[in-house]
Amino acid sequence: AMLRLPTKNSDGKANLHQGAIGVGIELIKGSLTHITYKNKIINKIHDMKAECGIVLNPDTPVDTVFPYLNRLDSVLIMCVHPGFSGQKFIPEVLSKIKKIRELCPDIDIAVDGGINDETIDSVLNAGANVIITNSYVFSSKDRAKAIRRLKGSNE
């Protein structure tokens, strides 16, 4: 994917090219230098008046994000291994959602991967408040019905 670095508008807010900033930072447990570097990136994003979030893959320990939680606007928890659409939900991520919600009651917790009418209740009950779904909706013969089912209606 191509990334254009955002610039500031005259009002000091970030000019987000094509509506979003996408930055991937591999979180690695390490020395204070690593933490300082990641905090500098978080500062730069916030200085541009943009929100900052971190993605947590299924195999990444949840405590990897703890040093940053109080400075983040969101955490995206991948419920499948990144790569291809249509994978099965990994239930072990539920404990990560619960732990982050416990530590940061006001943070946005997004979930992506394997979300359908059978898994949505478990991620919501664990504390997720932003739901990302793809295959379930777009592979459905009746997309409107699939969305209604995600919202809790069995119509």
What does this structure look like?
The chain has 155 residues and is an alpha/beta fold. It has helices at residues 32-47, 94-103, 120-126, 135-138, 143-150, and strands spanning 7-8, 14-15, 53-56, 74-78, 108-112, 130-132. Strands 3-4-5-6 form a 4-stranded parallel sheet, covered by helices on one side. Strands 1-2 form a two-stranded antiparallel sheet. β4 (74-78), α2 and β5 form a beta-alpha-beta unit.
Helical fraction equals: 25-40%
SSE arrangement, N to C: EEHEEHEHEHH
Beta content comes to 5-15%
Mean pLDDT, to the nearest integer, reads 78
Main features:
single chain; 155 residues; alpha/beta; 4-stranded parallel sheet; two-stranded antiparallel sheet; 29% helix; disordered N terminus
Give the arrangement of secondary structure elements.
Blueprint: E1 7-8, E2 14-15, H1 32-47, E3 53-56, E4 74-78, H2 94-103, E5 108-112, H3 120-126, E6 130-132, H4 135-138, H5 143-150
Parallel strand pairs: 3-4, 4-5, 5-6
Antiparallel strand pairs: 1-2
What's this model, at a glance?
It contains 5 helices and 6 strands.
